[in-house]
Amino acid sequence: MEHYLTTPLQNEDINKLQIGDKVFISGKVYTARDAVHKKLIELLEKGQVLPFQLQGAVIYYVGPALAPPGLPIGSAGPTTSYRMDPFTPTLLKAGVKAMIGKGPRSPKVISAIKNTNSVYLAAIGGAAVVVAQAVKSSKVIAYPELGPEAIYELEVENLPCYVAINSSGKNIYEQ
Amino acid sequence: MRTIDVKILTQKVAELCQNSNYYIDPQVIEKIHFFRKHETSKLAKDILDTLLENYQLAAEKKLPICQDTGLANIFVEVGSEIHFVNGDANQAIQNGVKQGYKQGYLRKSVVSDPLFLRKNTQDNTPALIYWEIVPGNKIKLTVAPKGAGSENMSQIAMLKPTDGVRCVKNFVLKTIKEAGGNPCPPIIVGIGIGGSFDKAALLSKKALLLPLQKNNKDPKFAALETQLLEDINQLGIGPQGFGGFTTALKVNILQQPCHIASLPVAVNIQCHVHRHQTVEI
Question: What pLDDT does B221 receive?
C-alpha cells in the first residue's frame, strides 16, 4: 500500500498504516539527532518553551550535508535511530506523532509507539540524494552552533519512507 | 631520491575527499545487480533499485551519496626514496581534508573532545592518517571516508587460540546479527584475523579496501570468506534490515601472524556506500 500524508499528523492518518507500506510525507518536518534530543528533554523537564510545536509533529533523524548554491539542502538521508531510543518515549508522550530514521528500535520505544498511537517510519539509509529531492526548503530554527546537528525546519513534498513499526506495535525488523 | 612538494598531497586529498563522496565504487553497483536477481520480495528489490538510482543521481549532480560524509581515513604508502619538501606532510594532508570538505559542501562530522565537550571542529579534521613505508619512489594515496552508522556496529574479540574456525565464524555471525538493520545493509564485511588487539582492527579496515571481485590468496581463507558470505546472507536481515537475501555483498579477510596465546578477530562493517579512491603520485 502507498499513503500520502500531510503534517501535522492525525490519529486517522496513523491507524491505517501497516508495516512495509510506502509513505510519502508532505508539510513541515523537524530534524533532531542525539544532542538535540538531550536538549529537548531538558526543556520539557524544566517546563520551558520548545523550538517547535510537538503536537502531531514528525521528527526526522538527519544531519544534512551542506546545501550547494541553488539547492534548498544537501544530501539528507536518515541516521541510525537506536541512539535516540532513551529520549523517544518522552517525546511521544509530549505529542510527537512520527519519527523518520533507520534501523530497529528498543522494546520501550515500541511500547511507547503503541501507547501513544504513533508510528516509526524508515527512510532508506544511504539514499540521501533521493530523500533530499523531496525537501523544498530548509531553515535552522535552533542550536546553529551544533552544525549538522542543529534543528532544521524542513518543508517537504512526498518524502519517501516505509512503515517500520506501526501503532499496533508490528515491527518490520522482527518478521 | 625523489622530491615531492607536500602541496601535492593537499591538492590530491582535497580531490579524493570530494570524488569518493560523489562517485560510488563501481564494484558495488555490479554486486547489487548480481544479488538483486536472488531477491524475491518486492520491498527488497524496491530498496536496491532506490540505492542504484541514488548512486546515479549523486554522480550526475555531484552531491554526496550519503549525508554522512564520514571521518576521512587516509592510507599513504610512501616509497622509501621519497623526500617531502615545503612543510609537514601530515599537516598537508589535514589541509587537504579541510579544503575538500569545504569546497565539496560535505558534512563536517568531527567533534574535538570525544567525551566532555563534543564540539564540532567545523572542518572535518583531524582525519585519521596511516603511513606505511614501502620500497621505491612512488606514493599511493587512498582516501576512504567512513560513516558512523556502520563503524558503530563493528566489534573485536580476543579469542582463545584453540577456539578455531568455528568460534571465528560464530563471532562474525553474532556481530552481523546484532548489527541487524542498523549499518544500512547491504554491507561489506572486513575481517582482520591475527596480529594484536589494535592490529586486527586495522586489518579489518584495510580488508574493506580490497577488491570485491577477488578472494583471499590463501585458499583456506578464501573458502572462509565464501562460507561466511553465504551464512550471513542466510540470516534474513536483507536490504535495510527489512528482510531478504542481500545482507552482505562481500566478505574480505586479511590475516597476519600473531602470538602463540592469541587469536584476535576484528569485524569492521561498511555500509553499501563504500567510498574510497586511490591515486598514485
Answer: 98
Statement: residue B4 has pLDDT above 90: yes
- Give the other-Cβ count within 10 Å of B11's Cβ: 17
Closest to A84 in 3D by CA, of A64, A59, A66, A56:
A59
What's the rounded Cα separation, in Å, for the pair A24 and A6?
Answer: 8
User: pLDDT of B236-252, one tens digit each?
Assistant: 999 999 999 999 999 99
Q: How many CB atoms lie within 10 A of CB B214?
A: 11
CA-to-CA distance for B8 and B129, rounded, in angstroms?
16
Contact B240, A124 (CB under 8 A): yes
Burial class (CB in 10 A: 0-12, 13-18, 19+), A65: buried
CB pairs under 8 A between A and B: 130
Q: Which three cell numbers stand for residue B136?
A: 621505491
| Alpha-helix residue ranges (DSSP H) falling in chain B | 6-22, 26-36, 42-61, 89-103, 148-151, 164-179, 197-208, 219-233
SS3 per-residue string spanning B99-121: HHHHHCCCCCCCECCCCCCCCEC
Hey, how many other C-beta atoms are within 10 angstroms of the C-beta on A11? 11
Catalytic site residue from A37, A39, A102, A105: A37
Query: What does the DSSP 8-state code read for residue B182?
Result: T
Complex confidence, ipTM: 0.94
Residue A67 with chain B: CB contacts under 8 Å: 105
Give yes or no for residue B232 having a pLDDT over 90. Answer: yes
pLDDT band at B32 (very low <50, low <70, confident <90, very high): very high
What's residue A20's pLDDT?
96
Q: Could you tell me which residues of chain B have a Cβ less than 8 Å from any Cβ in chain A?
A: 43, 46-47, 50-51, 53-54, 57-58, 61-69, 105-109, 118, 120, 122, 148-149, 152, 180-184, 240-243, 271-273
CA of A138, closest CA in chain B: separation in Å?
Answer: 15
pTM score: 0.95
Q: Indicate the pLDDT class of residue A13, thresholds 50, 70 and 90.
A: very high
What is the per-residue pLDDT across B44-87, written as a single tens digit (0 to 9) for each?
999 999 999 999 999 999 999 999 999 999 999 999 999 999 99
Which residues does residue B192 pair with via DSSP β-bridges, in sequence order?
B254, B266
